[in-house]
């Protein structure tokens, strides 16, 4: 999408829209190392990262009537801590939950495997993008320095590539425990608590294929 096309479309709030908007600003300014589009693109990419974390939180708590995504913290670092708590209490446990969901989605033949966002990477990129949005350096050390601007556009490219792996090559989502047969739920618990490793999990899922066919895949057929 070009910048002109972006201006003709209503603004949306999903992570994918923010990436599209960021690309429009980046593509407009990168060839000439233009400064203002760099800031606008950084702002949109930062918003996309925030939405990834918020959307993942909403998906995880979808079936939990005791929690509401409207109560999610506004501060991004606090939002990530809240997301960790939803995934089991720590960054490592959240990673194991997301990794299990990805392996299961691959096993049942989902159109796109589920993403495994790394909250450390999200936070790192968010902080670096914030430095571009709120740059407090002297002009000679920032906007008047061609290398600073070039490095900024390089960062945008890195962030875009990472977000593409989450939103395009894969999809942000989760698998509801309410949809899991008991055998799969037990395998999830064993994997998350590190009682089994990834190869063992994949073997157990293969052995469960008759159960998955009759009680999981057919539920989502069509």
Short description:
With 222 residues, the protein is an all-alpha fold. It contains 10 helices and no strands.
| Rounded average pLDDT | 88
Oligomer: single chain
Which residues form runs of ≥5 with pLDDT under 50? Answer: none
Q: Please count the beta strands (DSSP E, at least 2 residues each).
A: 0
How much strand content do the residues show?
Answer: under 5%
Overall morphology: elongated
What structural category do the secondary elements indicate?
mainly alpha
Termini gap = 32 Å
Q: What order do the helices and strands follow?
A: HHHHHHHHHH
Reported for the largest beta sheet, the result is:
none
* Helix percentage: 55-70%
Number of domains: 2
Helices, by number, come to 10
Mind telling me the C-alpha Rg? 20 Å
Describe, in plain words, how this protein is organized in 3D.
By secondary structure, this protein is mainly α. The chain has two domains: about 5-65 and about 110-175; about 175-220, no CATH class. About 65% of the residues lie in helices and about 0% in strands. It has ten helices and no strands. Helix 2 (about 15-30) runs antiparallel to helix 7 and helix 3 packs antiparallel against helix 6 (about 120-135). About 25% of the residues are buried.
């Amino acid at each position: 999408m070009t910048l002109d096309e972006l201006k003709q479309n209503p603004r949306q709030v999903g992570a994918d829209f923010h990436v599209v908007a960021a690309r429009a600003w980046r593509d407009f300014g990168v060839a000439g190392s233009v400064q203002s589009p760099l800031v606008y693109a950084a702002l949109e990419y930062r918003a996309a990262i925030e939405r990834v974390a918020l959307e993942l939180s909403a998906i995880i708590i979808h079936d939990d009537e005791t929690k509401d995504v409207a109560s999610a913290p506004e501060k991004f670092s606090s939002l990530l801590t809240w997301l960790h708590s939803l995934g089991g209490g720590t960054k490592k446990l959240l990673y194991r939950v997301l990794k299990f969901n990805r392996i299961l989605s691959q096993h049942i033949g989902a159109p796109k495997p589920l993403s495994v966002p790394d909250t450390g990477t999200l936070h790192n990129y968010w902080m670096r993008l914030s430095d571009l949005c709120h740059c407090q350096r002297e002009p000679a050390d920032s906007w008047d320095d061609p290398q600073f601007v070039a490095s900024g556009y390089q960062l945008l490219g890195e962030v875009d590539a990472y977000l593409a792996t989450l939103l395009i090559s894969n999809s942000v989502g989760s698998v509801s425990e309410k949809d899991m047969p008991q055998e799969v739920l037990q395998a999830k618990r064993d994997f998350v608590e590190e009682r089994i490793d990834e190869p063992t999990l994949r073997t157990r899922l293969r052995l469960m294929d008759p159960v998955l066919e009759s009680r999981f895949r057919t539920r989502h057929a069509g």
